[in-house]
């Protein structure tokens, strides 16, 4: 599939975020500067079977960056952006379920597994979370261990803690 991927960076309380979108919507958010994630971005695009150019375009990504800035400023608790999800059907099912976790709330991997009708797929839920290409907007940071502990996050537990703290959910976690 030949697709133009628009890319830009933004500063956030988590550090620099690199945002990638197509004409269909946001497809990737990377923790780090574009210069440091270019190789992993190219590898991700190749793995997804996406061909085409990567174009730096602040204007195209401005609405997405504005919503993320509002989120970090505490002015927004939901996102209204189109997504261009790339993943297996199982991963997409998990990610779409994650989008339903309310701001300031958390759910366990086990609860997510039950919700998608696969109660024994707890590890697979963790794997799908780990592959989430659009963190923050698809709030995988809101998924915790069954014992209430904060476990695993692709961006690192300190980023997960910051996001949950921003949402007022951290005091609910042991």
TrEMBL record:
CDD domains tied to this protein: ATase (cd06445)
Keywords: Cytoplasm, DNA damage, DNA repair, Methyltransferase, Transferase
GO MF, any single term: methylated-DNA-[protein]-cysteine S-methyltransferase activity
Stored Gene3D superfamilies: Methylated DNA-protein cysteine methyltransferase domain, Winged helix-like DNA-binding domain superfamily/Winged helix DNA-binding domain
InterPro entries registered for this protein in UniProt: MethylDNA_cys_MeTrfase_AS, MethylDNA_cys_MeTrfase_DNA-bd, MethylDNA_cys_MeTrfase_DNAb, MethylG_MeTrfase_N, MGMT, MGMT_N_sf, WH-like_DNA-bd_sf
Reactions catalysed, as given in the entry: a 4-O-methyl-thymidine in DNA + L-cysteinyl-[protein] = a thymidine in DNA + S-methyl-L-cysteinyl-[protein]; a 6-O-methyl-2'-deoxyguanosine in DNA + L-cysteinyl-[protein] = S-methyl-L-cysteinyl-[protein] + a 2'-deoxyguanosine in DNA
Any GO CC annotation of this UniProt entry: cytoplasm
Protein EC: 2.1.1.63
Domain (Methylated-DNA-[protein]-cysteine S-methyltransferase DNA binding) ranges: 89-169
Locations listed in the record: Cytoplasm
Record domain Methylguanine DNA methyltransferase ribonuclease-like: where: 10-85
GO biological process per UniProt: DNA alkylation repair; methylation
Active-site residue list: 140
Remaining remarks: This enzyme catalyzes only one turnover and therefore is not strictly catalytic. According to one definition, an enzyme is a biocatalyst that acts repeatedly and over many reaction cycles.
PANTHER family, per database record: METHYLATED-DNA--PROTEIN-CYSTEINE METHYLTRANSFERASE
Family: Belongs to the MGMT family.
Function: Involved in the cellular defense against the biological effects of O6-methylguanine (O6-MeG) and O4-methylthymine (O4-MeT) in DNA. Repairs the methylated nucleobase in DNA by stoichiometrically transferring the methyl group to a cysteine residue in the enzyme. This is a suicide reaction: the enzyme is irreversibly inactivated.
Protein name: Methylated-DNA--protein-cysteine methyltransferase
Source species: Halalkalibacter wakoensis JCM 9140
């Amino acid at each position: 599939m030949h697709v133009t991927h628009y890319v830009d960076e933004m500063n956030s309380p988590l550090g620099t975020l690199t945002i990638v979108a197509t004409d269909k919507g946001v497809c990737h958010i990377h923790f780090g500067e574009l210069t440091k994630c270019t190789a992993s971005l190219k590898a991700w695009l190749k793995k997804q079977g996406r061909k085409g150019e990567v174009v730096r375009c602040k204007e195209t990504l401005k609405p997405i960056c504005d919503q993320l800035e509002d989120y970090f400023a505490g002015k927004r608790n939901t996102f209204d952006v189109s997504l261009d999800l790339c993943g297996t059907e199982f991963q997409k099912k998990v990610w779409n379920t994650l989008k339903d976790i309310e701001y300031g709330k958390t759910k366990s991997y086990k609860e997510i597994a039950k919700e998608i009708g696969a109660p024994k797929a707890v590890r697979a839920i963790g794997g799908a979370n780990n592959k989430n290409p659009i963190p923050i907007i698809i709030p995988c940071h809101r998924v915790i261990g069954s014992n209430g502990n904060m476990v695993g996050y692709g961006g690192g537990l300190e980023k997960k803690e910051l996001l949950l703290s921003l949402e007022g959910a951290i005091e609910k976690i042991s």
